[in-house]
Amino acid sequence: MKVDRRSFLGLGLGAVAGISVSPVILKLTDDSSIWTQNWPWTPVPVDGEVSYVSSVCSLCPGSCGISVRKIDDRPVKVEGLDEYPINDGGACLHGISILQYLYDPARIKTPLKKKGDKFEEISWDDAVSMVAKKLSDIRSAKTPEKLACIIDKDQGSVSGLFKRLMKSFGSTNLYTMPSFESYLELTAAALHGKGTTIGFDLENSDFVLSFGAGVIEGWGSPVSCFKANASRKERGAKLYQIEPRLSNTAANADKWVPIKPGTEADLALGMAAVILKKNLFDAAAAAKFKGGFNKLAATLQNDYSLSKTSEITGIKETDIEETATLFAKAKMPVAVFGKGRGDGSQSLKELIAVHSLNCLVGSINRKGGAFIQPVKNYLEFPEESMDDAAKEGIAKPKFGQYVHDLFEKVNVSSQPAVEALFVYQSNPCYALHDTKTIKQAFGKIPFVVSFSSFMDETAGEADIILPVHTFIERLEDIPSGAGLAKMVVGLSKPVVKPLFNTKHPGDILLLIAKALGGSIGKNFEWASYDKCLETVAGSIWKSLSKSGHAILAKGVPEAPPEVDMTFLAGNPASVQSNGDGDLMLIPIDNMRLPSSAPAAAPFSIKTVSDEVLKGKDTVVEINPKTAGSLKNYDYVTLTTPVGTAKVMINLNDGMMPGVIGMVKGLGHTFDNKYVSNKGVNINDLIGPVIEPGSGVDAAFGIKVKISRA
Amino acid sequence: MNKNDKKAHKFGMVIDLDKCTGCGSCMVSCMSENNVPFKEDESNKKDSITWMRVYKLTNGKSFPETEIVYLPRPCQHCGGKGDHGHSPCVSVCPATATDYGYDTGIVSQIYTRCFGCRYCMGACPYHARYFNWWDPKWPEGMEKYLSPDVSPRMRGVVEKCSFCYHRYQAAKDKAYYDGREDIEENEYQTACTTACPAGAIVFGDLYNPAHRVHEIVKPDPHPASINSTVVGKSRNPNVFRLLERLGTNPKVYYLSEREWVRKAGDNYLAGEWDKIKNHHGSESHG
Questions:
Q1: What does the CA dihedral B221, B225, B230, B236 come to, rounded to 10 degrees?
Q2: Taking the model in full, what pTM does it have?
Q3: Does the interface predicted TM-score (ipTM) exceed 0.90?
Q4: Partner B contacted by A545 (CB < 8 A)
């Protein structure tokens, strides 16, 4: 057919007319608008009945009460529990993020066995029998001390079961990770006798003198401290913060006193000298001091004169004198210690020196002061039956008092000093100083069993992983500690059914004991952990199960304890930092980044400032004067005797010149892209410094060299 | 609802910057309450969705005179010039995806209406609005914790703080069920307010003299004497709003005893601050 002009126009017009009459265009437009308003890949949360379950958080030693909002059986939101004796409705960002831990991509879903560099899934039966076989071998070799165990804390029934297993097995090599509570007990033991601990009555004190304690940076029981701090103004109370850096606590305080890093003990002693010299101490209390108080007083007057203290600490003489005088003259003063969160390495001399100020001004067991109380052992485990192997084993000495002693022993021994190691809910391969040597020690231990919920750095080093329920999937007693004035045991409850093929740590120990049999099996004859808790919690179980918590002690303790000044009277040396760099690298505790297990949740990481973490780089704080020609976000290389790292810098006027501050809690390496492979782990750069006299790792920092990268 | 309705509320908040510790609980509580997603890298704060964001302010002095204060910034729920409901963002939205609630004073955001032109983001002087450059993604299984009270958003729309409007709806439902006409102060509190461990955030009805927020702010119902577009200026000398003189009339007030902090709420020419720092609303209503 020939297409002429007429037929072309005719066809064209016909087509136009046809299309305009047809509904196709309208239909297509409508369809496309509907299509662009559909997002099938965006989740639509299912609605249902709302309910609330109360429980207790055990992410940190704070032990806050939480209230979990559920839609049918799905937990959707975590908030602070109103009227709970510790936090009364408040919550920290980590507690609110609990549900992200529940669904964490790094959750371990089933028991695992190391094969080469990878893990393979195994059944619970196989896992437990492999552990039991290894333990039986150790026992038949008559070397029960070669089973070592690291747990996260000293108190509570799960720790109790680990201790029980170790004792029945015949090993004394049970260690806890350093925590604020452990430092409190060490300090109390040195001054007031073993088996006591310290609580601070911050909410009633009218003058808080803090030697670097991050009162609003996660120190102690964080939410309780936030509350006490917030009511300061209404109560007319003062907070003086002594630390090298303008931390949030320093910024919020009535006065910030910058101090040369690592000289806090000297300042405390200098202040004690001022208080003694000006006769501002509580004579009645001081009259009862034992262990060479007069000798100490003489030493203080000689070695800690105002001018000497000022020279050591870099603080003006008038500031030292004024602060000491204000502290001593306050009605209810309290001196608090434990730099940062209080769970990092601390010098026992410093802790004791600071706490001596409380003793001097009579703030012990007084409202608004420091409460000295016996550590309450509220659990009643039946006496263990011990076979001969166990009796022989526990007669052998422990490798050392602290967890770093264990790794030291493993690293120096040519034969395996430890045949098997249990690690429960702690992450020594990340959280201890000089992680390289810790990992090296793990490499030398033939059989490592991890009891963890997450595939963290330490779980990755294990030979067998026995995955445990997260704390919102299980029942457990959660004792408070961490410097709270009152002692509360909370009951953590299963808020949600376990998501994966995990078990309660207590139940795993029951299974292992049963597989071992003999007297060990007999010591664990409970039907389940839940039954065990009910039995051993004895007198407080009723209160625990009914109201969710039991109060063991509150109010001012009555009998004032003895004060023994022996440790300080011996005039111990102060801890020095390692290295030969001209700058000092110190760790920073940031409320938004947990520094130990478990790692931060994605929400918490999201809140971290870009002055702390930028992309995949840690940003360190440095004073503009120290930085010279360096600009914000310039890359530098930090070199210490332990390691090197490339980081960015943030020019920060709140940092003391000559000091570099690096945040703790970054640089994780396990498989969770929201949390890991971000920044540097400061423990790769700082090595342990063992304090003479106490044996604790007291590194407060390390000398560092800095160069443009 | 008519804006002259006697039952109208004007929800607002006052944040005590001297109590705020910068801990971040408000940010996380907000994200968890409102199904805010997260990405692998959130350190580029320009594309990091934080309805509530805590800023760090410094006094700019060098060591050891430096001071820091933290300033939490939700959506300011502006009433616009003269407090007539013409918020900067509402005025520019071509899709009526964001609107002013005359019964509550809350600026809404309707995600399915928004087509992502981002005019509102340009108009907002407080950077309170965020654009979804990507679809939200939760790690496998984690979408089970999402709350049915707030729709998850999709790529291509703007989102912001709603003063937890769903909590207001739930409180109203409960009041209706109980046969009450209105809700109590404690029945409607935002997620950031309830989470704050320092108790630094106080939320309530700025129209209701019995509410704590009103007691602290003491809002002046009349236009300010030096700038008639400003309404609701606080008569508390320690209370201020951000960029107050723009006449955006935010419903978020800040409290600080420190003068440098109050001064940081706006930009001033040399000498200007001293002239206006003592204007605290009309005396006659004190």
A1: -60
A2: 0.91
A3: yes
A4: no
